[in-house]
Specification:
Layout (H helix, E strand, L loop, with lengths): L1 H14 L12 E7 L7 E7 L4 E8 L5 E10 L5 E9 L2 E5 L15 H19 L4
Antiparallel strand pairs: 1-2, 2-3, 3-4, 4-5, 5-6
Length: about 130
């Protein structure tokens, strides 16, 4: 049994033809971090020689939370640039990017009898809320 395991792991090691390489060294072009001032304003900017960029600015929100806007981008293997912009505030996290999935369109129109039933249920809920009986 031990011989089979040794042979299996030896075959596995030999089958992996990827060469062992050292980590890629990338120059940092910009790395600025500004800590919050007395009003809660802060920002960070990062840029690397391989095209990676991250920019973030924030401030204290009206209700005491943090409001942040920012973006990041990086080059993809096909040469295009992947990017995302976002806002995070009292309304939550709101990303914007072509990378994000989009729900498909509803595959067919909703039949009228279904719309009628939904309207009937809404009217019935309103009557119940007013204390009326059907």
């Amino acid at each position: 049994m031990k011989l089979i395991l040794v042979a299996f792991f030896a075959a596995l090691a030999l089958a992996d033809e990827r060469p062992l390489t050292s980590p890629v060294v990338v120059a940092i072009l910009k790395n600025e971090q500004h800590t919050p001032d007395e009003f809660g304003n802060h920002n960070s900017d990062f840029e690397a020689a391989n095209g990676i960029e991250v920019h973030i600015s924030g401030s204290q929100g009206e209700n005491g939370g943090a409001n942040v806007i920012g973006s990041w981008s990086y080059p993809q293997e096909d040469g295009s640039i992947a990017s995302l912009k976002f806002v995070a505030d009292e309304n939550g996290y709101q990303p914007e990017s072509d990378l994000l999935p989009v729900a498909p369109h509803f595959p067919h129109p909703i039949p009228q009898f279904v719309l009628d039933q939904i309207e009937f249920a809404r009217l019935e809920d309103e009557r119940e809320a007013r204390g009326e009986r059907a």
